[in-house]
From TrEMBL:
TM ranges: none
Protein name (Swiss-Prot/TrEMBL): DNA-3-methyladenine glycosylase
Alphabetical list of Gene3D superfamilies matching this protein: Hypothetical protein, domain 2
One function term, GO molecular function aspect: metal ion binding
Signal peptide range: none
Lineage: Bacteria, Pseudomonadati, Pseudomonadota, Gammaproteobacteria, Alteromonadales
Record-level GO BP terms: base-excision repair
Protein residues bound to Zn(2+): C5, H19, H177, C181
Keyword presence, Ribosomal protein: no
Keywords: Metal-binding, Zinc
One Pfam family of this chain: Adenine_glyco
Keyword Metal-binding included in the entry's annotation: yes
Organism listed in the record: Pseudoalteromonas amylolytica
Length: 201
């Protein structure tokens, strides 16, 4: 039996798949980054598993996270989604997703890609943290505070330091798998096959 992170509820098969197949793997493509930002902002104040169970519904509601299409959504779309029980029916969060899509595109236009902008906060390479016990988990970091502050300055909503840190964990900017977790070293080994240098050009 594989040893996995202490935080993981291993009674939930979908949670195990997310942990094993996605969490902490570096993400360099903008569409996936927009998906993760959308889901994390929806999660604010709720459990991540609540959003994970609704992921397919969010994919459908927000055009498979096509940022250009989401940026064009309007008040009619907001009203429609407020009647959609398969997602979190929070008007401010729905509006924030549309707003964040527009801010996301502004960053793409400025930096060439959102990935290039985002990964600059860790100098274009993942931070590997020492996680030996539950006491080693952190909810935010100096980097997530700076990242969240800059996102706020650029108009993003529902992305404070804690939510941004969760985003950083999810997309591999930080490797917060437990030291004993079988995925930690596997993901580290994968770094040599990941073209982080391409982000700098």
């Amino acid at each position: 039996m594989c040893t996995r992170c202490l935080w993981l509820d291993q009674s939930k098969e979908d949670y195990i798949r997310y942990h094993d197949d996605e969490w902490g793997i570096p993400v360099l493509d903008d569409q996936t980054l927009f998906e993760f930002i959308t889901l994390e902002s929806a999660q604010a104040g709720l459990s991540w598993y609540t959003i994970l169970k609704k992921r397919n519904a969010y994919t459908e509601a927000f055009y498979e996270f096509n940022v250009q299409r989401v940026a064009q959504m309007n008040h009619g779309d907001v009203a429609r989604l407020l009647n959609e029980s398969s997602i979190v029916r929070n008007e401010k969060k729905i509006i924030a997703t549309i707003n964040n899509a527009r801010a996301f595109i502004d960053i793409q236009n400025e930096f060439g890609s959102f990935a290039k902008y985002q990964w600059q906060f860790v100098d274009y390479f993942p931070i590997v943290n020492h996680i030996a016990s539950r006491a080693d988990y952190q909810s935010h970091s100096e980097i997530s505070v700076a990242f969240a502050k800059d996102l706020k300055r650029r108009g993003f909503k529902f992305l404070g330091p804690t939510t941004v840190y969760a985003h950083m964990q999810a997309c591999g900017m930080v490797n917060d798998h437990d030291n004993a977790c079988f995925r930690k070293e596997q993901i580290i080994t994968g770094y040599e096959h990941t073209d982080f240098e391409a982000l700098k050009s």
